[in-house]
């Protein structure tokens, strides 16, 4: 039988390093995204953000002349939007037209 001994100091050091790494990653995450950052994050243009997302209810915050988007809200909005689409109806433009027609009745 093999007997393995582990030094508690080594374990504590490794654990502390893992905790420090995770805290650093969390601290670097952005809470708000600017238009430009949101455009890069989603890989879509500003006009598409306005036309397809904001008009469909994406929440934003205006601070002076700057528009900010809460990253967590963006992720939740996109999750809800994509869940409402089906495999046969996954075109956002089509989805918007249907939503508009339903609201006109």
Description:
This protein has helices spanning 8-28, 35-42, 46-53, 71-84, 92-104; strands at 32-34, 61-63, 66-70. Strand 2 (61-63) and strand 3 form a beta hairpin. The protein is mainly alpha-helical and 105 residues long. A three-stranded antiparallel sheet has the order 1-3-2. It has a domain at 30-99: Orthogonal Bundle (Multidrug-efflux Transporter Regulator, Chain: A, Domain 2), CATH 1.10.1660. The mean pLDDT is 82. Helices cover 61% and strands 10% of the residues.
Question: Gist?
Answer:
This is Helix-turn-helix domain-containing protein. With 105 residues, the protein is mainly α. Helix content is 61%, strand content 10%.
Q: Which class of the domain at 30-99 in CATH terms?
A: Mainly Alpha
CATH architecture of the domain at 30-99: Orthogonal Bundle
Secondary-structure element pattern, one letter each = HEHHEEHH
**Radius of gyration over all CA atoms, rounded:** 22 Å
Largest sheet: 3 strands, antiparallel
**What is the percent of helical residues?**
55-70%
Low-confidence segments, given as residue ranges, are none
Protein name: Helix-turn-helix domain-containing protein
Domain Helix-turn-helix: 32-80
GO molecular function, one term: DNA binding
InterPro entries: HTH_17 (IPR041657), SinI_DNA-bd (IPR010093)
List the helices and strands and how they pair.
Blueprint: H1 8-28, E1 32-34, H2 35-42, H3 46-53, E2 61-63, E3 66-70, H4 71-84, H5 92-104
Antiparallel strand pairs: 1-3, 2-3
List keywords for this structure.
single chain, Multidrug-efflux Transporter Regulator, Chain: A, Domain 2, 5 helices, 10% strand, elongated
């Amino acid at each position: 039988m093999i007997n393995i001994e582990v030094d508690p100091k080594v374990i504590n050091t490794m654990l502390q390093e893992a905790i420090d790494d995770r805290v650093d990653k969390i601290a670097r995450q952005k809470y708000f995204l600017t238009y430009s950052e949101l455009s890069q994050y989603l890989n879509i243009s500003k006009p598409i953000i306005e036309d397809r997302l904001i008009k469909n209810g994406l929440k934003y915050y205006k601070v002076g002349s700057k528009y900010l988007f809460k990253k967590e809200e963006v992720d939740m909005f996109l999750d809800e939007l994509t869940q409402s689409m089906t495999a046969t109806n996954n075109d956002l433009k089509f989805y918007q037209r249907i939503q508009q027609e339903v609201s006109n009745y």
